[in-house]
């Protein structure tokens, strides 16, 4: 397949995941659509192109691992897992309800394909370090990917993990920072003294790249570069919170907000409702 | 002559012996190798010694990652830095997904902290961990029991918190005394005037108190409650029914530890008067270990008096 066609295919899948997110949150009447949509293109690239996984065998020992450290964005991960065949899309209806497999935040014991429980911010990278060390100790070739939010890297444990990954030269660990510039309360810049992000990782000795997190070619190239690095690699992906829906883009009120019927209809129109 | 210098050496020895035949066992250290007396493990198995630096939260979360990949990490450092600094990581990323991580917390109790003072006296650890679902909580009495207990906890698949000491523990058990995880062990059965439940490094004091009481004609049943969670409800209930009154003895805040565990069983199964010997919900001061225990109400005499007091409340 030509590159253009491959990108078009990924775009189509990403649109589907975005629509799934909006529908899930609408039906559940609860959830975080904005932070889910900002990572939809990276999640699509990982689950439909990069990750070495087997949906028929979710606990396959040699599989690549993925940790959604910013666990509140889980609807898009649930959508990717469902569309990849880990469980039927009918499970969407259970999101955030009792006795269902889709918890409010990811739970590795309840949802097939979730490699690690997450949602309490800041912790995913340390867990990824553990997985990557385990791969080296066990002489396994799998990669561990961690998706961090730009807000959550304000947590100190992230930098504890960064030091540790550098010490062990974990060239099988690839972290994304979803740099949409917003966190629950306000813009990342206003809430913290974090910016600029990349020099922090450089100072901790990581292989660093900065990309447009909605450009499939850049995401793919960055992952390929990361795999060639000598140590842990971070990809700071500039993204737009709520990407894909004009009414949601860069409006932080969509951090946690439920789309109404009209807004769902717009999403179906924009993102291709015919594929329901 | 004891086999070890203390509970920390006993831990390392048990881990070393098990690691010879089980390559899943790893040691995760937040700069605690020397404090744990675990250098022999690092020398023998350098690739299985994960040093993360002074970063307990990272240590526990890294262990979660290791365990999710089929390994069995032991995270070993000061009790409070596991249960307080890294409490959330322990709760959310180990206990909630039921990962097979073993926590060894040293310097448990005010006896452990000695002259270090409150920052290194950990008398809330058992209460904190007991309130987290799905984690086994163990407080052995001496080095021989720690050695056996470390081997016992490795046989179960799931998270465990084990309290170890500071090197000042008194030996109560014989070297080959077995340890049965989850079971209360009746140590002395002089009679049924009162039940004496003890846990951890003050067990020797409870033994001494039981002897003094016996010489005065007060006959107690003394039980070692080394597994605080899950509590051996059946044995505890049987002892309570037999004795009709109980005293708990622990080097821990009277809130959250052994006293609460026994009171819980009593309330649900056999309501009887319970007197609690332990740290009475205050921050203690620093000082020599034995003096600190005596000063804060955990002397042998305090235990004797508690038994006399509780017997007067018997119906």
Descriptive key words:
heterodimer; A: 276 residues; alpha/beta; 5-stranded parallel beta sheet; 10 helices; 11% strand; globular; B: 315 residues; 7-stranded mixed beta sheet; 5-stranded mixed beta sheet; 13 helices; 40% helix; Transketolase_C (chain B)
Written description of the protein model:
- The complex is a heterodimer of chains A (276) and B (315).
- Helices cover 41% and strands 11% of the residues of chain A.
- The relative contact order of chain A is 0.17.
- In chain A, helix 9 (216-228) links the parallel strand 4 (207-212) and strand 5 (233-238).
- The radius of gyration of chain A is 17 Å and the shape is globular.
- The longest helix of chain A has 26 residues, at 3-28.
- A five-stranded parallel beta sheet of chain A has the order 1-2-3-5-4, sandwiched between helices.
- In chain A, helix 3 (40-50) crosses helix 9 (216-228).
- Chain A has 276 residues and is an alpha/beta fold.
- Chain A is built from ten helices and five strands; from the N terminus they run αααβααβαβααβαβα.
- Chain B is an alpha/beta fold.
- In chain B, the strands form two sheets. Chain B has a seven-stranded mixed beta sheet with strand order 2-1-3-4-6-5-10, with helices on both faces. Chain B has a five-stranded mixed beta sheet with strand order 7-9-8-11-12, sandwiched between helices.
- The termini of chain B are far apart.
- Classes of the chains: A alpha/beta (276), B alpha/beta (315).
- Chain A: Keywords: Thiamine pyrophosphate.
- Chain A: It comes from Anaeroselena agilis.
């Amino acid at each position: 397949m030509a590159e253009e066609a491959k990108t078009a295919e990924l775009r189509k899948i990403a649109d589907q995941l975005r629509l799934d997110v909006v529908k899930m949150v609408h039906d559940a009447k609860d959830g975080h659509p904005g932070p889910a949509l900002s990572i939809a293109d990276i999640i699509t690239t990982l689950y439909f192109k990069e990750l070495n996984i087997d949906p028929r065998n979710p606990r396959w020992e040699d599989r690549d691992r993925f940790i959604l450290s910013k666990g509140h964005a889980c609807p898009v991960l649930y959508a990717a897992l469902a569309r990849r065949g880990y469980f039927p899309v009918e499970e969407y209806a259970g999101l955030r309800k009792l006795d269902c497999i889709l918890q409010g935040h990811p739970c590795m014991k309840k949802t097939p394909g979730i490699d690690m429980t997450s949602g309490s911010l800041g912790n995913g990278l340390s867990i990824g370090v553990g997985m990557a060390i385990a791969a080296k100790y066990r002489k396994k070739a799998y990669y561990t990917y961690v998706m961090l939010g730009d807000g959550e890297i304000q947590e100190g444990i992230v930098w504890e993990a960064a030091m540790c990954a550098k010490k062990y030269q974990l060239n099988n660990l690839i972290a994304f920072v979803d740099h949409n510039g917003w966190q629950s309360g306000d813009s990342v810049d206003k809430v913290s003294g974090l910016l600029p992000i990349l020099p922090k990782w450089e100072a901790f000795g990581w292989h660093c790249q900065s990309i447009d997190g909605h450009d499939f070619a850049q995401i793919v190239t960055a992952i390929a570069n990361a795999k060639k690095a000598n140590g842990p690699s971070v990809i700071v992906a500039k993204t737009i919170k709520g990407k894909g829906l004009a009414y949601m883009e860069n409006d932080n009120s969509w951090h946690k907000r439920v789309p109404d019927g009209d807004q769902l209809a717009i999403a179906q129109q924009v993102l291709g409702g015919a594929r329901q | 002559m004891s086999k070890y210098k203390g509970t920390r050496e006993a831990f390392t020895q048990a881990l070393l012996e098990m690691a010879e035949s089980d390559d899943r066992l790893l040691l995760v250290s937040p700069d605690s190798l020397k404090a744990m007396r675990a250098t022999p493990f690092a020398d023998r198995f350098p690739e299985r010694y994960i040093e993360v630096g002074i970063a307990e939260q990272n240590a526990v979360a890294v262990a979660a990652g290791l365990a999710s990949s089929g390994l069995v990490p032991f995270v070993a450092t000061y009790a409070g830095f596991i249960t307080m600094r890294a409490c959330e990581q322990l709760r959310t990323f180990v206990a909630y997904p039921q990962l097979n991580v073993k926590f060894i917390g040293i310097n448990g109790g005010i006896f452990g902290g000695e002259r270090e003072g409150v920052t290194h006296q950990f008398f809330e650890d058992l209460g904190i961990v007991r309130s987290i679902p799905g984690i086994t909580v163990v407080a052995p009495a001496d080095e021989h029991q720690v050695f056996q207990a470390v081997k016992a906890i490795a046989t179960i698949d799931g998270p465990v918190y084990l309290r170890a000491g500071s090197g000042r523990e008194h030996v109560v058990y014989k070297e080959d005394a077995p340890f049965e995880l989850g079971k209360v062990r009746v140590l002395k059965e002089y009679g049924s005037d009162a039940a004496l439940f003890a846990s951890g490094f003050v067990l020797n004091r409870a033994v001494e108190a039981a002897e003094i009481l016996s010489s005065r004609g007060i006959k107690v049943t003394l039980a070692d409650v080394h597994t605080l969670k899950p509590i051996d409800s059946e044995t505890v209930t049987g002892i309570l029914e037999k004795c009709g009154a109980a005293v708990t003895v622990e080097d821990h805040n009277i809130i959250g530890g052994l006293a609460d565990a026994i009171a819980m069983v009593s309330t649900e199964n056999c309501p009887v008067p319970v007197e609690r010997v332990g740290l009475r919900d205050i921050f203690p001061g620093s000082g020599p270990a034995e003096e600190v225990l005596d000063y804060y109400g955990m002397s042998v005499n305090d235990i004797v008096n508690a038994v006399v007091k509780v017997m007067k409340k018997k119906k």
